[in-house]
Design goal:
homodimer, alpha/beta, Rossmann fold, 2 domains, six-stranded parallel beta sheet, four-stranded parallel beta sheet, 43% helix
Chain lengths: 276, 276
């Protein structure tokens, strides 16, 4: 990415895309850090989930979403989905030209490497992300001496979508996934939340793991990363957000509240058709 | 369905299709009841899950799977998926001509109505099946005086796919879903397992609900239903099963063991391409 990344129109929105609603945790973090910016959030709800699709299909979807965001004259594109970041980054960059494209893998990796002291990093993600080895490769590419403990936490996606984020059930599920990694003397001191659904378990994870483990939230990491490449607005106004989905705005707006801090109404969400 | 249903070649296989692996519980029940028959199981793993797709899309998929099974000269088609049964039955029947097509909704409904004494039937299913009202409509169409308690149990699909079918976590999840319905004086005496993933929780459900609640397993119900329409083989040999999938035979064969009673090897499973 070059200094050219900073020449785009100040008033242009930032584009954020995801297969569905998980990426709203990323939008939430971005809005927290850059409230003056405007955003276009594009959720490809007709074709979710991406995790079970082939890399080629995910790359094709990422390309079509990038094209859609380009039509909205965005000044940066955030791929707010780990699967799409893993398989769709190249396709998105090829289409975006000089517009910066930021995925989930690199920002979280950089932040984790900055904060780890013992060089042991845990990665919790979906089965597909863990299987792709995306985080392992990204970490070892920079620090080949790191130790990495990946764990596929598929059930947490279902819990997040059901809105069961507190209480005995998510607590037991987290223990079952993480105890084998953290109940050791040489446990990770840093844990990447490698799925955009997982920040809604952040309080519970802190409670279970204690203060000695640093949690890396992809949205927070992407915000830090973006601040290096974006000219921040200095105006006093809050920016606005446009929501686009490829299926059922009502269901999207109902489910959004689990991942986002504002209540959406169905009329805030526009249904669009995407080919490709 | 007419007597013509019985004229097809004795040696032709029975076709079974599903969006993925859940339908294997149906195949397991069919093989238990009709071990002499041969089967073609077709799992549309490239396009799963169906639950988040529009009814029109699911109907189109069901049509393409029906066509694929017709190429295999099947003598009956079992739609081993509640979503595809709800939205794809008409499309499948239109293509199948005289070949009987049996879905999940009608057999389970008939069995439930046969066994209920208090006329109160519980239905546990995915969010999509509950939202479609398929069981409610089917039951009330026959017995308008029935009371129905539907409950969307989305987390059980994730638990089934993770293979967590016993122990505290699935037990707590089942209690959370079912206690509001069953901890009453006028609780259902019959519970339809309205998702083909759910039979793997049958022992746990029996343990939680006790003997006073009859569980209706879709595969068992479909087998009973099929026996009215199928000329049973009288030969001594076991039939064989051909497995076809639209994506990743290795993952299918690995995951199949949770839902099926035989261990599949990747070479037992053939990858096919389906357009439509």
């Amino acid at each position: 990415m070059t200094q050219n990344s900073k020449i785009f129109s100040k008033n242009a929105p930032i584009g954020v895309f995801d297969s569905g609603i998980g990426g709203l945790t990323v939008l939430k973090a971005l809005r927290h850090h850059f409230p003056q910016e405007s955003y276009v959030y594009l959720g490809d709800t007709a074709r979710l989930p991406y995790g079970t699709k082939s890399p080629e299909t995910v790359a094709r979807y990422a390309a079509s979403l990038t094209q859609e965001l380009m039509k909205q004259d965005v000044k940066a594109i955030i791929i707010a989905c780990n699967t799409a970041s893993t398989h769709g980054m190249e396709a998105a960059k090829a289409l975006a030209g000089e517009i910066p494209v930021i995925g989930m893998i690199d920002p979280a990796t950089h932040t984790a490497l900055k904060v780890t002291k013992n060089g042991h990093i845990g990665v919790m993600a979906t089965f597909g992300t863990i299987k792709s080895g995306a985080y392992t490769k990204a970490i070892l590419n920079i620090r080949p001496d790191c130790r990495i403990s990946p764990v596929a936490c598929q059930m947490l996606v279902a819990l997040a979508e059901e809105g069961w984020t507190d209480g005995d059930i998510p607590r037991s599920v987290i223990h079952r996934y993480l105890d084998p990694i953290f109940q050791h003397n040489n446990a990770p001191d840093t844990l990447i939340l490698g799925c955009t659904h997982f920040p809604i378990f952040e309080n519970l994870l802190k409670d279970i793991l204690g203060n000695s483990v640093m949690l890396i939230n992809s949205g927070e990491a992407a915000s830090l990363y973006l601040s290096d490449h974006l000219e921040i607005h200095q105006k006093d106004m809050m920016g606005h957000v446009k929501f686009l989905v490829t299926d059922d705005p009502v269901r999207f707006s109902e489910n959004a509240t689990k991942f986002y801090d504002e209540r959406l109404k169905p009329e805030d969400v526009t249904l669009i058709d995407i080919k490709g």
